[in-house]
Amino acid sequence: MLFVAAPKGDAFMMRDQMLGVKLDTRRVVLLAVLIALQLVIARFAISLTIFRISFGFIVTALMGWWFGPFWAGLAAVIGDLINSLMIGVPGGYFPGFTLSAFLGAFIYGLYFYHEKITWWRVLAAVTTVILVVNLGLNSWWVSIISHTPFGFHFTARAIGEAATLVVHPVILYIVMHFEPIIRLKNRII
């Protein structure tokens, strides 16, 4: 269950579930490496006529799985700021996309942190990110920036996101059950 508020000593499991692991130097370095990896991997994408599949979501999901919602969200914000301000994005910086980055990582953390990674959990996490962040918020941000109707952007994005809904869960499930990834998680986190 996502929101369990049963007592656990002086704290609540819900708080621990939201904040994630306690960061020591080793974990901060790993989080920084994941942010850098996300920036690099997000640049590589498969572009088809209707949509583009980027692989940055894999690292975002791993951050949520390994560090919990809060730290994953914060790392996604840092990554978005570095990408927007230092590397540059078409159209310039817009804070709404930073909020989207935070929420996407936060959602993955809610679904994956301290949870068994099942096919249904992966599908639910990806579906939530697609509906709330990709279709909902990102369509809204683009409509604000471009001064065009929300429905236009929502409809245009829906086609690509339908393909994403098929591809992302499969990739995430495979990656999250890949033995070297599991060993790294168990060794470092």
From TrEMBL:
> Could you tell me which Pfam families the record lists for this protein?
ECF_trnsprt (PF12822)
InterPro entries xrefs: ECF_S_folate_fam, ECF_trnsprt_substrate-spec
Q: Would the keyword Transmembrane be found if you checked this record's keyword annotation?
A: yes
- Tell me the protein's name: Membrane protein
Q: Which organism is it from?
A: Latilactobacillus graminis DSM 20719
Q: What is the lineage of its organism?
A: Bacteria, Bacillati, Bacillota, Bacilli, Lactobacillales
Which keywords does this chain's UniProt record carry?
Membrane, Transmembrane, Transmembrane helix
Superkingdom of source: Bacteria
Q: Which residues cross the membrane?
A: 28-46, 53-72, 92-113, 120-142, 154-175
Quote the Gene3D superfamilies the UniProt record gives.
1.10.1760.20
Gene Ontology MF: a single term: transmembrane transporter activity
NCBIfam families referenced in this protein's UniProt entry, alphabetically: ECF_S_folT_fam
